[in-house]
Amino acid sequence: MLTEGWRDRLVPYKIKDGAKRKEYEVLCLSLPDICLNKLCWGRPKDYDFVSSVISGKHIRMEEIESLAGSVQSKYRNILRQNIKKAKGFIRQGKNNSILHH
Cα-flanking dihedrals φ and ψ of residue 58, to 5°? Predict the structure, then answer.
């Protein structure tokens, strides 16, 4: 699930190909876009990821919530429920700190 304007939020990232000694620039989804996508799915690993991103102060929940309005209407209710659930995980400190290893 990608929201309106996702292309404008792409983040450039440089990678090196050691074998060819070349550097490439790739465009990656922004963390808020990734987290919003994960919350649309709402699997346990998605809550863990989002909780780790927010708890690690990589982004704020408000950044995800600001994108939620541009989600297709048929997905908005489930997304709102999943955002609420994610906030509960964050308040309880439930995550495996996958971004801190």
Answer: -75, -35
11-17 vs 22-28, strand pairing mode: antiparallel
pLDDT in tens, 16-44: 887 878 899 999 999 999 999 999 999 99
Instruction: Give the pair of three-digit tokens for residue 48.
Output: 């863990």
Q: Does residue 34 contact residue 45 with C-beta atoms inside 8 Å?
A: no
Q: What's the 3-state SS for the chain? A: CCCCCHHHHCEEEEEEECCCCEEEEEEECCHHHHHHHHHHHCCHHHHHHHHHHHHCCCCCHHHHHHHHCCCCHHHHHHHHHHHHHHHHHHHHCCCCCHHHC
Domain extent listing, the chain:
31-100
Q: Which two tokens stand for residue 33?
A: 């876009």
